[in-house]
Amino acid sequence: MADQNLVENDEPLLVAKSLSKSFGRINACRDVSFSLYPGEVLAIVGESGSGKSTLLQMLSGQLAPSAGHVSYRMRDGVTRDLTTLGEAERRFLFRTDWGFVHQDPAQGLRMAVSAGANVGERLMAVGWNHYGRIRETASDWLTRVEIDVARIDDAPRTYSGGMRQRLQIARNLVTEPRLVFMDEPTGGLDVSVQARLLDLLRSARRRAEPRRYHRHPRPRGGAPLVAPRDGDERRPRHRDRSHGPGARRPARALYPAPRLLDPAAMNFTI
Question: Nearest-CA neighbor of 146 among 132, 131, 165, 133?
């Protein structure tokens, strides 16, 4: 089993090749290529309107690229081009393997059902069926993201913007997905809450057994990031590099430090 995990960690989890996206005469992304390995964190840094969210939507199969393709290594070890997946297969990935934290939490929550149901339905999607256990786990995650458990039966529409974002993070992390996409996950949160959520994301890796996943929110002022971790107890291999003009290290790097990509210079290959 350990040897199998070593082999799996030598294979990329997500591969983008020559991704480009145009909206009429506007080039949102141009010739983006990289391979993301288990244990790596990729941070995309750039100004508003530089194509960060567009790139994240293409990486997660929500937006078709104008050119290039994205492939993902499934649980059976087979790497699939996301464009070849059917709608049911993509929905299955989002329910099980993937998490996606939207910049606008209303896009990532079911606003008409309770907070507990928002967290619990993710657990049911991966096979949980004991109501008491589901509610207990949902309560635990609300506590972790600093939401009063007394609000578990309230709908997110009664929450503040910051509370909705924290609920969305809990909803995505509760099932310990293989890959997490985050589009400005700490935007709109108080600085003190941001710091505690960063600690929560870091500690989630340590608690995950038998598979360990590592997730990071984006550097302040930056944009989406992708943060997977698979397999064994090894320290994940990591290429600590910055790309393009203006690329910068995050003010507070968590372990391991993310690679930074500047979408203002979208012609690169890692």
Answer: 165
User: What's 254's DSSP letter?
Assistant: P
| C-alpha distances out from residue 30 to 23, 64, 69, 200, 245, Å | 12, 14, 12, 34, 16
- Plot region of 186 (φ>0 → left; ψ -120 to 50 → alpha; else → beta): alpha
Question: Cα(147)–Cα(140) distance, rounded to whole angstroms?
Answer: 10
The type of residue at 195 is A
pLDDT digits (tens, 9 = 90+) for 151-208: 999 999 999 988 999 999 999 999 988 899 998 887 777 888 888 877 777 766 555 4
Cα–Cα distance measured from residue 250 to residue 218, given in angstroms and rounded to the nearest whole number: 8
246 vs 47: CA distance, rounded Å: 10
Hey, what amino acid is at 200? L
Cα 95 from Cα 125, distance rounded (Å) = 6
Spatial distance between the Cα atoms of 168 and 100, rounded to a whole number of angstroms = 9
d(CA 3, CA 68): 33
